[in-house]
Amino acid sequence: MIHQHLKKFKAISASKEGITRLGLSDWEDKAHAAAAAAFSRSRRVKTVKDQAGNTFLVNGEGPGPYVVMGSHLDSVPNGGWLDGALGVAGALVAMQKVLQKHRRAPVAVAIWADEEGYRFGNGLWGSRAFAGKVPQEEPLLLDRDGVMLAEVLAERGLQKKLRRSRETGELVPRFVYKPPFEIAAYAEAHIEQGRQLIDAGKRVGLVTHVSGIRRWRLESMGETNHAGTTPMRERRDALVPIAGMVGRLPQLVRGVNNGVITCGAMGVEPGVANVIPNKAWAIVEHRAPTDRDQDETARRLKELVATTGPRAPGVGLEMLPISNVRPMPMSEEVTSRIEEICKKAGVESMRMVSMAAHDAMSVAHVAPAGLFFIPSLRGISHRPDEDSRREDIKLAGDILTRWAMAEVQRVL
């Protein structure tokens, strides 16, 4: 059953190579609709859409709060077929089996919107909205084409258009959200996206806590001029300081426990070979398991921005915060119960830290939340050749089913 759901999701993609279902797009909507179709013949299960683009499949005959499972269906460009989709497919199977046994079970599937945050660089969008962790100014974020997140939300009918202040004429930040129900407990299955399980020879990874993620936009402003006729001493090239900083980023996490830093997106304007750039930008992200380590990396990055050269007179340089997802522990109660399920099934598991962000860390702000991994073959993810063993994929659905059955019994 879980493989049938995954096969259906795999067919929904804007690209032929890999999976491309960007968050807050029609492709993501199609995938959400395909998941909801699993209960299209049920009069009990209601499809609920919220003000952030999330989709929830809720047993209408069950009293809340709800036992919830889920993940996301958006992807990075040309990504893998299991990232996020595994957790949704497993949740659908688990909910179907629970309802066969308990008609009034307070159970639901959460399909979170825009977990990857590809377009606006924010990540965990839908689950953060549910948890009340979206700052009011976040809808003012711009994508690579200068389109504002608030515009996308308004176009998709999720939020009202922003109004301008009568006094200043500037847009007034605003994001309205009300969770459609209360969560009693949450569990999420995911592929590991690394090699720890493969190297240790274990089939399940029990996540104890998830690493923090901070993203910044480094932006430089210079002056456009002719690339051939402008002497080097007179140039105000916006790209030079940005390029100099990116090359030095790896040094910033030396000595930081499990610290990593990445520049995965850059741009220049006007983007013409024979024109000196008047604007350049880079998105920098750093991760570490503790706030202390994250603070230290941020301090080093700010110092780098303040001291970077060469920088011609008149070239401005800014470091702008995009998002700050703090390290988050998972529920020991939920983790222990999943661990016990593995022991009873004779499945070898191990406890571990996740360096990748997942929606469970948002949900953990409002309810007990657990997260577990199955191995990624060769530790590969965010690529078309991402894969897991068929028996491990099935195991993910089995664990979710057993967990949900036990949780429903406790809630009823």
Short description:
The protein is of the alpha/beta class.
Question: Could you describe the 3D structure shown?
Answer:
The two termini are 27 Å apart. The chain is built from 11 helices and 13 strands. β1 and β2 (55-59) form a beta hairpin. α1 runs antiparallel to α3, α3 crosses α11 (390-411) and α9 packs across α11 (390-411). It is α/β, with parallel strands linked by helices and 412 residues long.
Instruction: Give the overall average pLDDT.
Output: 95
The radius of gyration is 23 Å
| Biggest β-sheet description | 9 strands, mixed
Q: What is the CATH domain class of the largest domain?
A: Alpha Beta
The count of helical stretches stands at: 11
User: What order do the SSEs take from the amino end to the carboxyl end, as H and E?
Assistant: HHEEEHEHHEHEEHEEHEEHEHEH
Query: What would CATH call the architecture of the largest domain?
Result: 3-Layer(aba) Sandwich
Query: What is CATH's topology name of the largest domain?
Result: Aminopeptidase
The CATH homologous superfamily of the largest domain is called: Zn peptidases
Global morphology = globular
Number of domains: 2
Q: Give the total of beta strands.
A: 13
Structural class: alpha/beta
> Which spans have pLDDT < 50 for at least 5 consecutive residues?
none
How much helicity do the residues have?
25-40%
Strand percentage: 15-25%
**Distance separating the two termini:** 27 Å
